[in-house]
């Protein structure tokens, strides 16, 4: 029961913090000009909900972690147990800071939502900075904390970059999906350049995938260490399931970039455009589904003993 609760709280927290970061980063690279009001309103709503879910799931993650450490869920109500986790563990200190940040993010997201559809570059940068802090600070807890010295610095930095790249790609799929759903027209409707957004998203995707693979290999080297540990441990097999899901996402993203988007651009304003846009929508939803599977694997991985040395 405690393990299941912890995995579920972790899953919701990864979904919420990656969505928040991806939605916050989106206007920084996706639009050549101003972001249309309809999209600002929708994106601010998404960020507010993700911020609220980040706070709620973060508190649940803390509760199940305390229960995991003490051995019983009832102990969470014991002030002494709570005080010792908050005072005497690195996790307690990091989580206190993260939950304070989560409250700040909810307040800033609510203020931005009230001001919709107006948004400024300053607002977008502030929200991106706070959302990046929420996501990257996860590297301060969990398996990235195993090593000391230089190996510790390498692991925490690689893990923080891994998390930010995961947020940019997975979280960015939400506003991209909305644009493909919300904007039947093309360039000029509501001032949005759908083809341009698709090309710029692909550009960001290259950087995110390269970062995920590079930092993922660092994580794997430090937590798995060998192919035999990868194939002969529970941790290793869950990581393999994650990599298979990642492979599926990569295949869909490559099909988008080298087949569907060029076909969409070539179709121009002809009716055929709608057919290619439909296929693109399906692929984006497919990428999101596989992305949730990746986050589910990660939610379990963090509760399993790493494969290194097994
Ligand atoms: C879509 C692609 C990917 C996404 C969204 C993703 C996401 C994540 C997330 C959210 C974490 C948790 C980090 C933390 O809480 O500290 C993580 C950890 C990890 N990732 Fe990835 N990742 C991706 C691709 C990869 C790849 C390609 C590799 C290997 C080459 C990899 C290997 C790992 C490892 C070993 C961990 C540590 C898990 C742990 O023990 O906590 N990931 N990943």
TrEMBL record:
<keyword id="KW-0472">Membrane</keyword>
<feature type="transmembrane region" description="Helical">
    <location>
        <begin position="44"/>
        <end position="64"/>
    </location>
</feature>
<dbReference type="GO" id="GO:0005886">
    <property type="term" value="C:plasma membrane"/>
</dbReference>
<feature type="transmembrane region" description="Helical">
    <location>
        <begin position="166"/>
        <end position="184"/>
    </location>
</feature>
<dbReference type="InterPro" id="IPR008457">
    <property type="entry name" value="Cu-R_CopD_dom"/>
</dbReference>
<feature type="transmembrane region" description="Helical">
    <location>
        <begin position="289"/>
        <end position="308"/>
    </location>
</feature>
<dbReference type="InterPro" id="IPR032694">
    <property type="entry name" value="CopC/D"/>
</dbReference>
<keyword id="KW-0812">Transmembrane</keyword>
<keyword id="KW-1133">Transmembrane helix</keyword>
<keyword id="KW-1003">Cell membrane</keyword>
<feature type="transmembrane region" description="Helical">
    <location>
        <begin position="205"/>
        <end position="224"/>
    </location>
</feature>
<feature type="transmembrane region" description="Helical">
    <location>
        <begin position="126"/>
        <end position="146"/>
    </location>
</feature>
<protein>
    <submittedName>
        <fullName>Copper homeostasis membrane protein CopD</fullName>
    </submittedName>
</protein>
<feature type="transmembrane region" description="Helical">
    <location>
        <begin position="95"/>
        <end position="114"/>
    </location>
</feature>
<feature type="transmembrane region" description="Helical">
    <location>
        <begin position="244"/>
        <end position="268"/>
    </location>
</feature>
<feature type="transmembrane region" description="Helical">
    <location>
        <begin position="12"/>
        <end position="32"/>
    </location>
</feature>
<feature type="domain" description="Copper resistance protein D">
    <location>
        <begin position="197"/>
        <end position="301"/>
    </location>
</feature>
<dbReference type="Pfam" id="PF05425">
    <property type="entry name" value="CopD"/>
</dbReference>
<dbReference type="GO" id="GO:0006825">
    <property type="term" value="P:copper ion transport"/>
</dbReference>
<dbReference type="InterPro" id="IPR047689">
    <property type="entry name" value="CopD"/>
</dbReference>
């Amino acid at each position: 029961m405690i393990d299941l609760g912890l995995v579920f709280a972790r899953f919701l927290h990864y979904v919420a913090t990656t969505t928040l970061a991806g939605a916050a980063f989106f206007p920084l690279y996706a639009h050549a000009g101003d972001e249309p009001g309809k999209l600002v309103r929708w994106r601010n709503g998404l960020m507010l909900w993700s911020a609220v879910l980040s706070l709620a799931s973060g508190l649940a993650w803390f509760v199940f972690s305390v229960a995991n450490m003490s051995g019983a869920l009832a102990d969470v109500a014991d002030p002494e147990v709570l005080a010792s986790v908050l005072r005497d563990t690195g996790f307690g200190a990091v989580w206190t800071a993260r939950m304070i940040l989560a409250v700040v993010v909810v307040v800033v997201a609510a203020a931005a939502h009230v001001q919709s559809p107006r948004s400024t570059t300053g607002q977008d940068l502030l929200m991106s900075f706070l959302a990046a802090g929420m996501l990257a600070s996860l590297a301060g807890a969990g398996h990235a904390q195993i090593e000391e010295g230089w190996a510790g610095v390498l692991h925490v930095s690689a893990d923080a970059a891994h998390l930010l790249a995961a947020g940019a790609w997975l979280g960015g799929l939400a506003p991209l999906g909305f644009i493909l759903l919300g904007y039947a027209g093309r360039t000029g409707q509501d001032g949005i350049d759908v083809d341009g957004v698709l090309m710029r998203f692909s550009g960001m995707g290259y950087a995110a995938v390269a970062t995920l693979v590079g930092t993922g290999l660092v994580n794997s080297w430090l937590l798995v260490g060998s192919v035999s540990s990868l194939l002969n441990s529970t941790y290793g097999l869950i990581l393999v399931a994650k990599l298979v899901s990642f492979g599926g996402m990569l295949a869909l993203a490559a099909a988008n970039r080298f087949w569907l988007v060029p076909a969409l651009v070539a179709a121009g304003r002809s009716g055929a455009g709608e057919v290619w846009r439909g296929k693109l929508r399906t692929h984006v939803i497919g990428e999101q589904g596989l992305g949730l599977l990746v986050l589910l694997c990660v939610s379990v991985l963090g509760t399993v003993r790493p494969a290194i040395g097994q």
